[in-house]
Amino acid sequence: MKYTIGFDVGSSSVKIALVEAHSKKKIAVITEPQEEMPIHAEKLNWAEQDPEMWWSHLCNGIHRILKENSLNPSLIVAVGISYQMHGLVVLDKNKKVLRNSIIWCDSRAVEIGEKAADDIGEERFGSHLFNAPGNFTASKLKWVKENEPEIYSKVAYYMLPGDFIAYKLTGEIATTINGLSEGMLWDFKDKKVADWLLDYYGIDTDLTPPLVSNFEDQGRINAIGALKSGLPEGIPIRYRAGDQPNNALSLNILRPGEVAATGGTSGVLYAISNRNSSKEFYRVNHFAHVNYTHQESLIGTLLCVNGAGIQYSWLRRISNQTDFNKMNDLAGKVPIGSEGLINLPFGNGAERMLNNKAPGAHFLNLNLNKHQQGHLFRSALEGIAFSFAYGMEIMEEDALDIKVIRAGNDNLFRSEIFSNTVASLIGQSIEIYNTTGAIGAARAACIEFSGLEDYSQSISSIDRLIEVKPQKETDAYLLAYQKWKTELERKI
Fold first, then answer.
1. What is the pLDDT of residues 436-491, one digit of tens each?
2. 118 backbone dihedrals φ, ψ, rounded to 5°
3. Cα–Cα distance between 139 and 125 in angstroms, integer?
4. How many domains does the chain have?
5. Which residues on adjacent β-strands are paired with residue 361?
6. How far apart are CA 264 and CA 294, in angstroms?
7. Distance (Å, whole) CA 14 – CA 438
8. Model-level pTM?
9. Within-domain flag for 16
10. Is residue 240 domain-resident?
11. CA 61 to CA 77: how far, in whole Å?
12. Which of 132, 194, 286, 330 is the most exposed place for a label (fewest CB within 10 A)?
């Protein structure tokens, strides 16, 4: 029996999955480390992590999952990588990390992206980048150039977090089309690297790594990577993608009209289309999906709520709760609308769906004589769910035709309050699948591009659990949502 291994390198933890290569069935999933990884925030709205920390935890996790499952490493035949999107990693000519990674929720480059949008103009960035330049990898690299010239002068390679992990395993530096599109570095109209944006920023275009395609060999584990990780030397990395496109793949979201919903550290709606135009370049993003090709431009439209699961985790810590299930039980004793308590969950950096504003997280209308812990927990779940509904309205305004919504059976979607609130407000059922990003990455490592349809059919029979349908009586949900929107509009 042969196996593939998948990694999901997030900002909170590294998840590692083993999958049986032929049947695609999950063998095991672990999280490393046991506590959340630290995020360094030297200034307000900054967020950095040491890339070597990701690598260290990844190696520890690989050794642990192999040991816990008594698995001989020689039985692993391929690797798949999922990673936190939009981050920037820079290396010098000796391939040493020059500074901490500026990660996805860091907002320092917002003004750089806004100025670029003004200078370049919507007609050009809309048709070529399919996005406003925004606070993404290209703008973060420009920030380093402007503010840390000594570091920038030593930069020989820039890359995304998943590219760094692939480099540590193989010694080879490369990236993907979908990866470049995450950083506003892919020209969808000309179907090539957006060198013109790098020229605008004054960034050497030679720093861009060479391209590799998904679902093919992207490099092989070298001797050093094998020694550190415990994986067999010579096996290929056959897949890499940002966490949200990868989560969509994990949920069998590959066709126009399908939407993946994720309730992790951030909350995400990710909708597939094959259109070549949009009227919304600021509040949502458009990326090359994992099955994008020059012949078929399958685009993932992503709407992100930065302050989602991270807020619920924060509440768990400060309330000295040890179990999310207990929090959900307490929340379940509180009626819809949390008896007037309203939560705005936007405390994790600038929110693109709010036009890059950072209103912060708020609990409003707090009544010290009435509201208890359960009210805080319910209002937090409702606040995040309301943010999803608000985001769905934005996507529908952009003429996306939504036919199917699927979510993983983890994080926020384990809460009936959260799932029922989202389904009831958007008026559409949500299919819940028993999968994770790490499992999806492991499965993707053993499929050919030509076999995506077979892959899709096989996992639909393996993973589907339940369907959350909208509640029949929705008046209370709609009333609470309208009150929430009123408070949000006051803050922004």
1. 999 999 999 988 766 888 888 877 778 888 899 999 999 999 999 999 999 999 99
2. -65, -45
3. 14
4. 1
5. 345
6. 31
7. 9
8. 0.88
9. yes
10. yes
11. 18
12. 330
